[in-house]
Amino acid sequence: MAEGFTTTLNWQGSSIIAQRLAKLIPEGTNFEIENDGDVAKLTVFVESDDLEQLRADVDDLLTLFSDQDE
Predict the structure, then answer these.
(1) What's the pTM?
(2) Quick one: which of 1, 15, 22, 63 is 20 to 30 A from 9 by CA?
(3) What is the CATH number of the domain that holds 18?
(4) Is the separation of the CB atoms in 29 and 21 below 8 Å?
C-alpha cells in the first residue's frame, strides 16, 4: 500500500474573497465553497505522496492567499 499524506486548509469570510481565493487554487487541487449569505467557507484539500511536497504545496497556497484576504 502506498503512503499518502493529506491536509485541509479552511478559510471563512466574504463570499467575494472566497471566489477570488478559489481562482488562485492550482488546477488538480480539490476544494469546495459553502455559502451562507454574504459569508463563505472555503475548504482546500491538499494531497501528496510525499510529506515534504505536501508542505511545499501548502506553503505555496498560503503565499498565493496572503495578499487576498483584505
Answers:
(1) 0.89
(2) 1
(3) 3.30.70.60
(4) no
49 in helix, strand or coil? coil
Tell me, yes or no, whether 53 lies in a domain. yes
What pLDDT is stored for residue 1 in this prediction?
53
Is residue 44 within 8 A of residue 26, CB to CB? The reply is no
Residue 70 in any domain: the answer is no
Query: What's the CA gap between 5 and 55, in Å, rounded?
Result: 10
Q: Is residue 58 part of a domain?
A: yes
pLDDT tens digits, residue range 13-38?
A: 999 999 999 999 999 999 999 999 88
Q: Which of 33, 34, 29 is nearest to 45 (CA)?
A: 29
Classified as helix, coil or strand, 12 is strand
Residues 6+ apart with CB under 8 A from 42: 9, 10, 11, 12, 18, 21, 22, 31, 32, 33
